[in-house]
Amino acid sequence: MTILTLENIHKTFKNGDVEEEILKGISLSLKQGEITALTGASGSGKSTLLTIAAGLQPPTSGHIYFESHDLAELKPDQIRHIRASQFGFVFQFAHLVPFLTVEEQLIFMLDVSDSKQNKQQRAAEIKRLLELVDMEHRRTAYPASLSGGEKQRIAIARAMVHQPTILFADEPTASLDSKRSKEVMTLMRNLTKELGITTLMVTHDQDTMAYADHMIEMKDGCLSQPV
Amino acid sequence: MNLGWKEIKRNKIRFVILGSIVFLVSLLTFMISGLANGLSQDNAALIKNLPDGTLYLEAEAEGNYSFSSIDSEFQEDLLAMSDEVTAFSIQMGFVDDQDDKQHSVAFVTSTASDDFAHADHGEVILDQSLKEDGIAVGDILTNQQFDGELEVVGFVEESKFSHAPVAYINIQDYQDMYRTESLQILYTPEEQAAINTEHLQAYSPAEFLNTIPSYQAEQLSLNMIIWFLVVISGMLFGIFFYMMNVQKIGLYGILKAVGVKTSALFKMIWLQMLLITIIALAFSISLSHLFNLFAPAGMPFHLTAITTIQLSVIFLIIGFAGATISGFQIKKAEPLQAIQQGES
Ligand SMILES: Nc1ncnc2c1ncn2[C@@H]1O[C@H](COP(=O)(O)OP(=O)(O)OP(=O)(O)O)[C@@H](O)[C@H]1O
Ligand SMILES: [Mg+2]
């Protein structure tokens, strides 16, 4: 089943008088529960494509079909609501809220996503995720006292605690060494499979690509092999 | 979950510092305001405590009550027509007590009126501040321009003029003392129809206060200090939240990316501002009112509940404005940039 479909996405940036077309008519679709890896040279437009797919910036033209909506047509607040409730995000850095404990990071995300769960359900869900990322024992710690890998594991838990439909990850392991990076990728793969979450992930790293179900390469603003 | 509160809890020192600065500034504002009001009472309680109404001076006096002289016949006609009209006079002078000690006073005399104390011939009623100078009921006071004697028959509260205690004397004694038949000022309460004649110039009590030379100068400078402090406190909030927001701009971007509403972020800083201001005000209000209770009797300090409430509301409004203006940083926070940037 197709979860998200990009159709003929163009993106042009203006740098002063010069217009540069970064995305030249990209189409692709994400299938339920699968991990799609997006690779390509630096500056090829991977992050641009990911953020357009996630509704973080509008395309110059084209459509982003998600459920019954075209994100290109929705108002900013409608897109925000979809991001909060249906999407999860993991970035190169964990970007945790510095004044919240590990546990509170997840509670906060549930608040943001307008989760309808009651208190007990929430507590159970948070406990389960913290166990899955093996961070139960640091429940009450603040981000400042966590290592880079630990932070990233919390960021992954935060991105999934509200059971999003799609997980968007932009170089989630770039700030980690290769051992940590493997751990985090194994974790991400296990979690998305277990929770049935569809993933779009940008990565440079050959090792990381091994965890994906599909690979797409970007070149000169196009996909080098249509999927 | 309440982000604003969590941040305060985690960064206590930062917020305590802001809170204590707001506390000090607002305390200073309350103190100066108490002082301004106290001085104003000290300078003009006689006029300020009159019920709302109108004061009239002779037009030729050009706003200086001591040059004013109401025509006696005109005054008699007027008083015969309405018993609401009062004529009175104020003269700065001295009384000598039984130990030959001199006290400066403002002699006041008036036609029959509920708003002025009435002394019979040979008697004087004093403002109670003279009690502290050792004057008591039954004492005999003298005056160099006056052959007779004045017996103290009572004291009244809060009756001062030009920083001197008021001494109410009988019209007859006043006329002997200052060798004049006429009085200076006419006063009518609010309900009374206006007196229309080109010989007289009408003043509201506030306008009349400004004809007292020292009054305007005093109040103007104190009020200026108060407003400066209020503006400073607003800027404090603005600058503080601006600095905090600049540090957090990356965080705001990330929060927006994951779907937090901009309005939720504004609510967060508003809540912080409110909490800090209310706690700081609670401390400064209690302290300044405590001072109001225990201030030395000779110190002109008078802080009213209304002034306190007004200033507090102004502090809240200005804190709100400062926090909101600095909050435009939040609006500017870009989710995209924040994502690309490294860990803050
Ligand atoms: N807001 C913008 N304004 C102008 N140019 C932009 C903007 N965003 C991206 N670009 C340009 O678009 C191109 C693609 O950027 P993008 O970040 O998508 O690349 P990327 O494939 O993610 O690279 P990397 O692997 O280094 O992260 C770059 O040349 C970049 O300079
Ligand atoms: Mg990128």
Write up this protein.
The complex is a heterodimer of chains A (227) and B (344). Chain A is built from 7 helices and 10 strands. Chain A has 227 residues and is α/β, with parallel strands linked by helices. Chain A has a domain at 2-95 and 163-223: 3-Layer(aba) Sandwich (Rossmann fold), CATH 3.40.50.300. Chain A has a 6-stranded mixed sheet with strand order 6-7-8-3-9-10. A 4-stranded antiparallel sheet of chain A has the order 2-1-4-5, covered by helices on one side. In chain A, a hairpin with a 2-residue loop joins strand 9 and strand 10. In chain A, helix 3 (102-112) packs across helix 4 (119-132) and helix 5 runs parallel beside helix 6 (178-195). Chain A is globular. Chain A starts with a strand and ends with a strand. Chain B has 344 residues and is of the alpha+beta class. Chain B folds into 2 domains: 3-43 and 216-340, no CATH class; 69-183, no CATH class. Helices cover 52% and strands 18% of the residues of chain B. Chain B has helices at 3-10, 12-48, 72-81, 171-178, 205-209, 213-247, 249-257, 262-294, 305-326, 328-332, 335-340; strands at residues 53-58, 86-96, 102-110, 123-127, 140-143, 146-156, 160-161, 164-169, 185-189, 200-203. In chain B, strands 1, 2, 3, 4, 5, 6, 7, 8, 9 and 10 form a 10-stranded mixed sheet that branches. The longest helix of chain B has 37 residues, at 12-48. The radius of gyration of chain B is 29 Å and the shape is elongated. Chain A binds chain B through residues 47, 51, 56-57, 77, 80-85, 87, 89, 91-95, 97-100, 104, 107-109, 111-113, 142, 170, 175, and chain B through 1, 3, 6-7, 9-11, 250-251, 254-261, 335-336, 338-344. Bound molecules: adenosine-5'-triphosphate (ATP) and magnesium ion. Adenosine-5'-triphosphate (ATP) binds at residues 13, 15, 22, 40, 42-48 of chain A.
